Amino acid sequence: MKRALVLFAHGARAASWAAPFERLRDGLREQLPGTPVTLAFLELMEPRLPEAVTAQVADGVDDITVVPVFLGQGGHLLRDLPALAEQIRAAHPGLRLQLAGAIGEDPGVQAAMRDYCVRSLGNV
User: Which residues, if any, are the signal sequence (predicted)?
Assistant: First the structure.
């Protein structure tokens, strides 16, 4: 079984918006040598999620975990992502596709964000 990780972000018109997500992807690639890690977008940027998954499958991946790099479970994660997952599963019936929760809802990520907020106050 060949596993891969796809970071799923919203996308924006400004190319610079993707920079933090690209750094996250690059750091994960260093941390997970041998595991393909890609970045995909819902809209406004490329690649879109179905195309990113198709590229992974073409490279022999048969187990993909999609991690939404969203702060919370809004409409995009409640409606759009499940619809995309259904489309992807139909196009790649042998693929194991797992959807993680929104990264911003993870307790460890919440703790890191709290720490950042406290540090932003300065000498506390």
Answer: none
Name the strands in the sheet holding 96-99, side by side, starting at the edge strand that comes first in the sequence: 37-41, 3-9, 63-68, 96-99
Backbone angles phi, psi at 67, to 5 degrees: -110, 110
pLDDT number for residue 86: 97
SS3 of 6, please? strand
Tell me the angle at which helices 81-91 and 49-58 cross, rounded to the nearest 10 degrees: 30
Give the mean model confidence (pLDDT) for residues 67-80.
92
Q: What is the pLDDT of residues 36-67, one digit of tens each?
A: 999 999 999 999 999 999 999 999 999 999 99
d(CA 114, CA 66): 25
The three-class DSSP label of residue 14 is coil
Kindly state the tokens that stand for 113. 């964000």
Q: What domains can be seen in the chain, in order of their start residue? A: 3-120 (3.40.50.1400)
DSSP 15: G
